[in-house]
Write a structure and sequence with these properties.
- The structure is a single chain.
- The protein is α/β, with parallel strands linked by helices.
- Helix content is 36%, strand content 23%.
- It has 8 helices and 9 strands.
- Strands 1, 2, 3, 4, 5, 6, 7, 8 and 9 form a 9-stranded mixed β-sheet that branches.
- Strand 1, helix 1 (15-23) and strand 2 form a beta-alpha-beta unit.
- Helix 4 (133-140) packs across helix 8 (209-232) and helix 6 runs parallel beside helix 8.
- The relative contact order is 0.17.
Length: 234
């Protein structure tokens, strides 16, 4: 099975570290699809990698749009998302894919470490451990328990659930995970730490916190009834 690692890139100084971690995976049948979402900074850091990745340039249209462009241009049976400021552990793709094939699931997510700007681990295995489908559904009523860079999903599944809603600038992932769950797919949690999530002063979740909170509240209002009904069936 081929796995496509999709990377949206916009003016991120850590892009070279992200690409190195993608290229250093222990699983060999991968492709890396990078979408330059109108970046004007740090383009020099892409040059050493251009011959080993699929490179797409577009005008700035947001992360959801860039992810969709990467998915459209990917050829793997599975896709996994890597933000340009985060890092994969070398066994990320291999361990996750083998789990999904073994248990025949179309969507999985994992635990992660938090690192700082200098790559020091400042919080180990920081993700929320999910023990049941009901617990996950109830978590969605409060927020997004899934770190997008820990996700691996089947391209076939995305044909049914749809891709990211590009009109949502910050919560496109939160929205898609809920749509996938409500479409009847199992969102399987793998309790392994396979990603380094970077906490740094320029990260989007800090710079746009107020706008993100407003978008989260609107999305929760939109999904509350559907999620409550779904929980009632569990």
């Amino acid at each position: 099975m081929k796995v496509s690692i999709i990377i949206p890139f916009y003016n991120c100084p850590y892009i070279d570290q992200a690409l190195e971690s993608a290229l250093n995976q222990t699983y060999s049948n991968i492709e890396i699809v990078l979408v330059n979402d109108g970046s004007t900074l740090h383009l020099d850091k892409l040059q050493p990698f251009r011959s080993r990745i699929k490179y797409i340039h577009q005008y700035n249209a947001g992360t959801g749009n860039a992810l969709n462009a990467a998915i459209r241009n990917s050829t793997g049976e599975y896709v996994t998302w890597l933000s340009s400021d985060d890092v994969y552990y070398p066994n990320k793709v291999e361990d996750q894919l083998y789990y999904m094939l073994k248990y025949q699931v179309s969507f999985s997510f994992t635990n992660w470490d938090v690192i700082d700007a200098a790559n020091n681990v400042i919080a180990a295995s920081y993700g929320q451990r999910v023990n049941s489908k009901r617990e996950l559904a109830e978590s969605f009523l409060l927020g997004n328990p899934i770190n997008g860079c820990t996700v691996m999903m089947s391209k076939e599944m995305l044909k049914i659930s749809g891709v990211f809603d590009k009109s949502l600038r910050y919560t496109h992932d939160y929205d898609l995970w809920m749509r996938i769950m409500l479409a009847g797919y199992e969102l399987s949690f793998i309790d392994k730490t396979l990603v380094k999530y970077r906490d740094h002063p320029q990260m989007g979740s800090r710079k746009h916190r107020t706008d993100i909170e407003h978008e989260i509240k609107a999305l929760q209002t939109s999904y509350q009834s559907k999620l409550s009904q779904f929980i009632g069936t569990l």
